Amino acid sequence: MAQIRKVTLIGAGGNIGPWILKALDDDPDFTVSVLARQSSKSTFPFHVTVHRVDDSYPDEEVLKAFQGQDAVVCSVNMGGVTKQIAFIDLAVKAGVKWFIPAEFGGNKAKAQFGVKTPLYDAKEAIHKHLIEMEKKGLSWTAITTGAFLDWGLSNGFIGFDIEDKRAKIYDSGDEQWTATTLPTIGLAVARAFKKPEEVKNRFIYIYSTRTSQNEILKVFEAVTEKKWDVEHIKFDDEIAAGQELLNQGNRLGIIPLILSHLIRENVGADFTKDVEADNDVLGLPTQNIEDIVKEVLAWPEERIEAARLV
């Protein structure tokens, strides 16, 4: 097939979007443009074409932005996941060749073993729709990353409060899981387009490191030269509390449910037990957890602020 060169990115201002944008923009083989909501306050490099559309993503405005593009990458947040079926249909209508959905995260192949969430149900519907659109000439690649490791260490999502030197350890804390840093996720997207036959119409699996909460705690204590306060928590209790928050209309209740798919035992969180990682296919580096922790501790304040959960 013809090489992918023109790429439109949806969600370029979120958590992983800036890193996907950077990886594509840094590679001279790609011309990247951005589809952004009118209300978005995100800014982008001056040379990148930005298509501002109404916040409701009207079909005619999105279709116009997709015209002439080879690929669309979607990195919208949880609130935008369900809009992807419309994006996929419009991509097909515009003649787009490739679609990468906002699948970045847990091992969907084992999602049935974890607690059910609306997010995973929505992703299942998107996956089925992508398979259906293969009949109309659309190719796709979904990227399984595990937890966003540097992001999740910075903002406490994975259980570590850097400022107060406190850790929440779930269950034994020895459960092994795979995770990926934001820069590596960005590289994976760019390099996937250069290996179309190897990644076509399937999930690919990438990671930066394989670790556990207890290993991370040990590294944090060694690097900061401080003994951290540790709270041991049962995942079942945290999930129940999260579900109660969701029942009350508090969307933050989904956080422990999502986390349980990323670091809990027996839900495919360590996908290296089940599949062969695609790091070698894409030429992606791995890192040791000590280097990742040191990088996060050196983050500038503006990056820490951008990663905050609330």
From TrEMBL:
GO terms for molecular function: oxidoreductase activity. Residues 6-234 form the NmrA-like domain. Gene3D superfamilies: NAD(P)-binding Rossmann-like Domain, UDP-galactose 4-epimerase, domain 1. Keywords: NADP, Oxidoreductase. It comes from the Eukaryota. Pfam families: NmrA (PF05368). This is NmrA-like domain-containing protein. It comes from Exophiala spinifera.
